[in-house]
């Protein structure tokens, strides 16, 4: 279905995203070391909300944005945690899927915001609408690695 090409975290909203080869995902918390895991993110909700645990974006959508605008914009500029290829993330809203050994569930689209536009370019607001990625809930603990496959699975139904 798809593959992880890059893993990015930031310890605080003011720091640039740093690239990792592997990261630990903790169910109900997020990615170890990331600003939302430590509740230091710009939009950290209180109480906790599952759609702030993990964010993903398609490399193809970033490339399309760069081609359309001519702007110098890289995956790290989008401030999403995981960069993917070969998967339509919009289709994964309300779907269970797996990244390597980690089970997750798509919650909602990760639309561009004013904070992102202020950090990069005003054009990101319009240019990445419905292309800004996916917010997901982490359902099981485990390591996520660059190169991990993204696969759908049937989520167990209660009862």
Automatic annotation (TrEMBL):
<dbReference type="GO" id="GO:0030151">
    <property type="term" value="F:molybdenum ion binding"/>
</dbReference>
<dbReference type="GO" id="GO:0003824">
    <property type="term" value="F:catalytic activity"/>
</dbReference>
<protein>
    <submittedName>
        <fullName>MOSC domain-containing protein</fullName>
    </submittedName>
</protein>
<dbReference type="InterPro" id="IPR011037">
    <property type="entry name" value="Pyrv_Knase-like_insert_dom_sf"/>
</dbReference>
<dbReference type="GO" id="GO:0030170">
    <property type="term" value="F:pyridoxal phosphate binding"/>
</dbReference>
<feature type="domain" description="MOSC">
    <location>
        <begin position="18"/>
        <end position="153"/>
    </location>
</feature>
<dbReference type="Pfam" id="PF03473">
    <property type="entry name" value="MOSC"/>
</dbReference>
<dbReference type="InterPro" id="IPR052716">
    <property type="entry name" value="MOSC_domain"/>
</dbReference>
<dbReference type="InterPro" id="IPR005302">
    <property type="entry name" value="MoCF_Sase_C"/>
</dbReference>
């Amino acid at each position: 279905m798809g593959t992880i090409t890059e893993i990015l975290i930031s310890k605080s909203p003011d720091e640039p995203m740093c690239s990792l080869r592997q990261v630990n995902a903790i169910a109900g918390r997020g990615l170890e070391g990331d600003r939302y895991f430590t509740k230091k993110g710009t939009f950290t909700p209180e109480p906790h909300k599952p759609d702030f645990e993990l964010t993903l974006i398609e490399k193809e959508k970033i490339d399309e944005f760069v081609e359309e605008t001519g702007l110098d914009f890289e995956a790290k500029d989008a401030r999403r945690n995981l960069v993917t290829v070969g998967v339509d993330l919009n289709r994964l809203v309300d779907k269970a899927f797996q990244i390597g050994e980690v089970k997750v569930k798509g919650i909602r689209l990760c639309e561009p915001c004013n904070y992102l536009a202020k950090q990069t370019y005003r054009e990101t607001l319009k240019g990445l609408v419905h292309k800004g990625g996916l917010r997901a809930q982490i359902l099981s603990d485990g390591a996520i690695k660059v190169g991990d496959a993204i696969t759908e699975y049937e989520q167990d139904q209660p009862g």
